[in-house]
């Protein structure tokens, strides 16, 4: 099999070589390229591949359809909305992801954003550098707050555990599954959850049910003192509606790690100029530890596929 990696996995060359050696010892060919968004170059690099590996770079139908031998797409990421799944499905190409590698990384940055928002960390840091004081920026504690979670998979559940350890109550939206209440999480309809939450944290994939779920109407259900954190996927939120709500004081602030497109963003993006908003360029998943966990998963995906089976199945 010819295996082609189209972008870096964020691990050392030494570690990558150790994984590649196990494949080449089995008679397989492995080639790695630096990421490019040039479709023509992607096609040239991928055209002979039996297996394609990517992380979060878009993989369009034009590239998939230009690979006559392609049998398997191995996505070193949790979300797969950047992959032309319809094209893969039409050709019977299998697709797996790397679910689980970033659970701790995303949950920890979510907690950091929540604490930064509650304690006005960006504002007091700027005031301190400018020779100022804490005046006007007396924050709040997470203990005793209610955190509403949209998406209680592995990451959402980990966030629930972390905020609960700080003394917060956890509630969640019941619209994605029929999960029963637990000692940790109580489920309820969206508007009820939003109206009761001091912090709303998003951890769901982009689907027909979740796309645009946070919009002017649903934001209107939130407390004016509430914060929104999005470390899920950008299209879950109507960015302009959220920016308008932040700038008009309808909610107190936001922490945003994901957008409709991958950074670098247009510098006119509304959330880059919204009040009381922490923005990061899609970094929640990226830690040294998570990159190493991811490599274990994606190379295990390949060995499983080569053995005639499939794990972490998307298609």
Helix/strand/pairing category: alpha/beta
**DSSP E strands, number:** 12
| CATH hierarchy: architecture of the largest domain | 3-Layer(aba) Sandwich
H and E order: EHEHEHEHEHHEHEEHEHEHEEH
The portion of residues assigned to helices is 25-40%
Given the structure, what is the number of helices?
11
Rounded average pLDDT: 97
Return the domain count. 2
Assign the CATH superfamily of the largest domain: NAD(P)-binding Rossmann-like Domain
CATH class of the largest domain: Alpha Beta
Q: Which stretches of 5+ consecutive residues score pLDDT under 50?
A: none
The largest sheet has its strands arranged as 8-7-6-9-10-11-12
What gross morphology would you assign?
A: elongated
Main beta sheet: strand number and arrangement? 7 strands, parallel
CATH topology of the largest domain: Rossmann fold
Task: Tell me what portion of residues adopts beta-strand conformation.
Answer: 5-15%
For the CA atoms, what is the radius of gyration? 21 Å
Distance between the termini: 20 Å
Properties at a glance:
single chain, 315 residues, alpha/beta, Rossmann fold, 2 domains, 7-stranded parallel β-sheet, 5-stranded parallel β-sheet, 11 helices, 12 strands
Could you characterize what this model shows?
With 315 residues, the chain is an alpha/beta fold. The protein folds into two domains: 2-101 and 288-307, 3-Layer(aba) Sandwich (Rossmann fold); 103-279, NAD(P)-binding Rossmann-like Domain (Rossmann fold), CATH 3.40.50. The protein is 34% helix and 15% strand. The chain contains eleven helices and twelve strands. The protein has helices at residues 13-24, 39-46, 61-65, 85-90, 103-118, 121-129, 154-165, 190-196, 216-219, 239-248, 288-306, and strands spanning 2-5, 29-32, 51-54, 72-75, 94-96, 146-150, 169-173, 186-188, 199-202, 227-230, 253-256, 277-279. The chain has a seven-stranded parallel beta sheet. Strands 2-1-3-4-5 form a five-stranded parallel beta sheet. Helix 5 crosses helix 7. The longest helix is centred in the C-terminal third of the chain and has 19 residues, at 288-306. The radius of gyration is 21 Å and the shape is elongated. It starts with a strand and ends in a 9-residue tail after the last helix. The model has no long low-confidence stretch (mean pLDDT 97).
